[in-house]
Structures are given as structure tokens and as C-alpha cells.
């Protein structure tokens, strides 16, 4: 039976294959990945990732609760964020999570107070802003001096002075996260250099770190997803293998989000109208920025495919959503002659898609369908498409 559009469709086989490829790209037993829940927090996505043995990287108290509810071991949960509320710190400390990634000297005082209330010692990693340019979109750049994240590298000494004053805090690690959708690996090499400086500085002050957390950020291929359904994890991990100076027993933590879930999700929508505009032909679809906001928010490109037409002759279309905002567009593209009722597939929507959806205009949220529950062909009422879709 066909499914009401729009809906998110997740290919769990691709997710499994991606996780498999990621694990086999790791040659160092001290490398450990925490999945960044904020990229996609659908239950079965999280369960699949947990069953694969990854930890969880959380940026809110509710993400910590959700991770624990779905069976992640608190010892494999880390928590970052520049504005953690007292309630969220309470959740982190009372559950004894692996590490609170502290983003300011001011926060240390508050974490210490809350830990004292619980008669606990909170494990802290300093999130350092390394001032490394991730060479990505400015709205997803997080590791420059002008960004709000982390403790400025120039304040490292002051942060150490502060943490040593508090009995309920233990400095166990350092954390960095320079940005997202990073495809050029040089920024990660630069990050390693900065991390090495930080590690050496702390060592000089007599602090032996247990873990170095280098964050996430590895990008995916939005332009041509089929040419690279699985990101190049090998090259990515190699950079850290090569450039990071580690002491015996130190572990390296990664917080990958997009690269794990990005390609396994698609947004499926139906064409409502094909309208002749003054300058272009609009394909007006029933999915909009309330379902997938990345194009409106970051000018992001997502490949749009027409699942119902197979013609080789392509025409230019401007694919837009129904929301009363001019930014509600999926961009201009070439499609076979498109008509009302055609199914459209917006690719590479597994990360920062469904999690960022809203019910603006009082719209309903898109449903979630997993590949092992129903084939995409059956979702769109077209068994004929089954073979073509399996390759996707
Ligand atoms: C968003 C975020 C990540 C994940 O980033 P990706 O680009 O999806 O890999 C990792 N760590 C922190 C602290 C984050 O905020």
C-alpha cells in the first residue's frame, strides 16, 4: 500500500554497510567512535548504531536520556554544548556519563556545584576552540576564534588553574570540533597539530590526558550520492593516525554524525503542481522546508530525482515546497518531463533532515519508513520500480 507523502525513507542495509566500512577503516584499537545523535535521532537508526558498538555524542539532556533509554551504556556517552542548563548537567552527572565536554571556564564552577550535590566527581574534557578553518560553509564552521564554541586556546592555562581548584571535577580529556561537511582533509591535519600543542601544554603542567576527542565533521557527497554512498573513512582515520602524537594508552574519540547517516535517508514527496512561472517551470512538491530545512538554512544542495518518470530527455525545473517562504526551495535541476502525482526522491537527507523538521504552518511531520518494513517501490505503489530502486 502506498504511503502518504511526504515521508522519510531509511535504507538500513546502507546504514549497516556504512557502519561496517567505518569499523573496518579503523586500524587502531584506541580509536573509538561516538555517534553524534543530533544528526538523526530516529529510534531504529540509533538502535542499529548502538548494536554496532558505537557510543553516543549528545548535545542536550534529552539526547542523553534518549541514548540511555535505547540502551547506550552511560560510559559511552559524552555531552557537549555551550549552554548546558543545570537540569541537563544534573542528568549527565546523575547518570555517570563518560565525559562532560566543558566549553567555558564559567561552566566549571556550575558543574562542580552540581557534582558536589550528587557527591560525585564529574569527568571533564575541555572543549578547546583550536582556531582551525574547516573550509566548509560558514554556518557550520565551529572552530574559529569568531565562533561561540569551546574555550579559546589562549585561555587554556586559566582553565587548568580553575579546574584544579574544584574537588568534584577531574580533567580527563580534551575535545575539539571544527565544523561539519568537511571534504578536504587538510583541516583535520591542522587540527591534529593544534591538538598536539594542547596535549603537550597540559603534559607540561603535569596533566596526563586519558582521551583526545577530535569531534566529527567528515562530509558526504551530496552532488552525486550514488558515486559515493559510503564516505572515505579510511583516508579520514589515516590523517589522525599519521598526525596525532599520542602517549601510551591514550584513546582518540571521534564524533561522526553526517558521514554515518547522511546517505541512508531520503525524503520522498509527490508533485502537486507543475506551474509555468515567468522565468522557469516550477515543480511544486508536497515536502517543504518544514521537512528538510537544509536548503533554506544553508543553501544546501540535495539531489532531486523523479521516481515516476524514466525519460532520458531532461528539462529544467525549479523544485519548490508549499510553504509561504521564498526560501522554501530545493533548487533548480534537470528532470524528465514531470507531471502532477510523480514521486520525487530528495537524496542524502539522512543527516540534519528529519531532526530539524518543524510543524510551521501547522503542517504534520513526515512519517518514518525503514527499508526492512516496506520496500520503497511498495511505498510509492509501484512494484515495477523495485529493481531500479534496489540499486539506490
Ligand atoms: C554536530 C556535532 C558533531 C557531528 O558533526 P558531523 O558533521 O555530523 O559529523 C560532533 N561533535 C559535536 C560537538 C557536534 O556539535
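^ C-alpha cells above, recovered residues below v
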Amino acid at each position: 500500500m502506498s504511503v502518504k507523502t511526504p515521508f522519510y525513507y531509511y535504507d538500513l542495509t546502507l546504514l549497516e554497510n556504512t557502519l561496517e566500512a567505518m569499523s573496518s577503516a579503523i586500524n587502531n584499537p584506541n580509536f573509538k567512535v561516538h555517534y553524534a545523535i543530533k544528526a538523526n535521532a530516529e529510534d531504529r537508526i540509533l538502535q542499529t548504531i548502538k548494536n554496532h558498538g558505537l557510543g553516543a555524542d549528545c548535545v542536550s539532556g534529552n539526547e542523553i536520556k534518549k541514548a540511555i533509554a535505547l540502551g547506550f551504556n552511560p560510559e559511552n556517552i559524552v555531552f557537549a554544548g555551550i549552554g548546558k542548563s543545570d537540569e541537563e548537567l544534573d542528568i549527565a552527572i546523575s547518570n555517570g556519563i563518560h565525559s562532560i565536554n566543558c566549553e567555558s571556564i564559567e561552566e566549571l564552577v556550575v558543574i562542580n556545584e552540581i557534582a558536589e550535590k550528587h557527591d560525585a566527581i564529574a569527568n571533564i574534557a575541555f572543549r578547546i576552540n583550536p582556531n582551525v578553518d574547516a573550509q566548509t560553509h560558514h554556518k557550520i564552521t565551529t572552530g574559529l576564534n569568531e565562533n561561540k564554541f569551546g574555550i579559546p586556546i589562549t585561555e587554556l592555562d586559566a582553565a587548568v588553574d580553575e579546574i584544579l581548584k574544584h574537588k568534584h571535577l577531574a580533567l580527563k580529556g580534551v575535545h575539539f570540533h571544527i565544523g561539519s561537511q568537511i571534504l578536504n582533509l587538510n583541516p583535520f591535519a591542522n587540527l591534529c597539530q593544534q591538538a598536539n600543542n594542547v596535549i603537550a601544554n597540559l603534559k607540561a603542567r603535569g596533566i596526563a590526558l586519558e582521551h583526545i576527542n577530535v569531534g566529527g565533521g567528515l562530509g558526504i557527497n551530496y552532488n552525486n550520492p550514488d558515486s559515493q554512498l559510503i564516505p572515505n573513512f579510511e583516508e579520514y582515520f589515516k590523517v589522525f593516525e599519521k598526525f596525532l602524537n599520542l602517549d601510551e594508552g591514550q584513546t582518540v574519540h571521534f564524533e561522526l554524525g553526517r558521514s554515518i547517516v547522511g546517505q541512508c535517508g531520503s525524503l520522498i514527496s509527490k508533485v502537486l503542481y507543475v506551474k509555468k512561472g515567468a522565468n522557469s517551470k516550477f515543480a511544486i512538491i508536497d515536502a517543504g522546508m518544514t521537512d528538510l530545512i537544509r536548503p533554506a538554512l544553508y543553501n544546501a544542495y540535495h539531489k532531486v530525482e523523479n521516481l515516476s518518470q524514466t525519460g532520458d530527455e531532461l528539462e529544467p525545473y525549479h523544485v519548490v515546497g508549499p510553504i509561504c517562504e521564498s526560501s522554501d526551495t530545493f533548487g533548480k535541476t534537470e528532470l524528465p518531463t514531470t507531471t502532477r502525482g510523480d514521486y520525487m526522491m530528495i537524496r542524502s537527507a539522512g543527516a540534519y533532515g528529519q531532526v530539524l523538521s518543524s510543524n510551521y504552518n501547522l503542517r504534520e511531520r513526515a512519517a518514518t519508513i525503514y527499508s526492512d518494513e516496506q520496500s520503497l517501490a511498495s511505498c510509492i505503489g509501484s512494484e515495477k520500480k523495485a529493481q531500479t530502486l534496489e540499486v539506490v
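The longest strand covers residues 265-276.
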